[in-house]
């Protein structure tokens, strides 16, 4: 996984400015950050990407805490969002 440290300018609305992690195809797989509005709690936003209709969609989202070594911890899961289907019009 390739990591890119990002610092957004102050005029860009974002909850945090931290590290983006990309897979071998250059797709965003994880966003590591410290939640600035929650006392800097560390979080890893993990996405499960699937290609549908020739477009890549993030079908599952998980927000996890960090282990002491900086890797995403499997528990506790802070947010879990699953999409099981998409309908294109």
Summary, kept brief:
With 89 residues, this protein is mostly beta strands. It has strands spanning 2-5, 19-22, 28-35, 41-52, 55-66, 72-82.
Written description of the protein model:
The chain is globular, with a radius of gyration of 14 Å. The protein has one domain (2-82). It has strands at residues 2-5, 19-22, 28-35, 41-52, 55-66, 72-82. With 89 residues, it is mostly beta strands. A hairpin with a 5-residue loop joins strand 3 (28-35) and strand 4. It has a six-stranded antiparallel β-sheet with strand order 1-2-3-4-5-6, with no helix packed on it.
Helix content: under 10%
What's the order of the H and E elements? EEEEEE
Radius of gyration equals 14 Å
The biggest sheet, with number of strands, parallel, antiparallel or mixed sense and barrel status, is:
6 strands, antiparallel
Tally of alpha and pi helices:
0
Approximately what portion of the residues adopt beta-strand conformation?
over 45%
Mean pLDDT: 80
- Beta strands, count: 6
Which spans of ≥5 residues are poorly predicted at pLDDT below 50? none
Shape: globular
Strand order of the largest sheet: 1-2-3-4-5-6
Cα(first) to Cα(last) distance is 34 Å
């Amino acid at each position: 996984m390739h990591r890119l440290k990002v610092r957004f300018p102050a005029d860009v609305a974002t909850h945090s400015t931290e590290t983006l992690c990309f897979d071998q195809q250059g797709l965003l797989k994880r966003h590591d950050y410290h939640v600035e509005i929650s006392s800097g709690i560390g979080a890893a936003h993990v996405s499960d990407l699937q290609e549908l209709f020739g477009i890549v969609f993030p079908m599952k989202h998980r927000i996890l805490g960090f282990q002491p070594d900086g890797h995403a911890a499997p528990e506790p899961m802070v947010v879990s969002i699953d999409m099981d289907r998409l309908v294109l019009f």
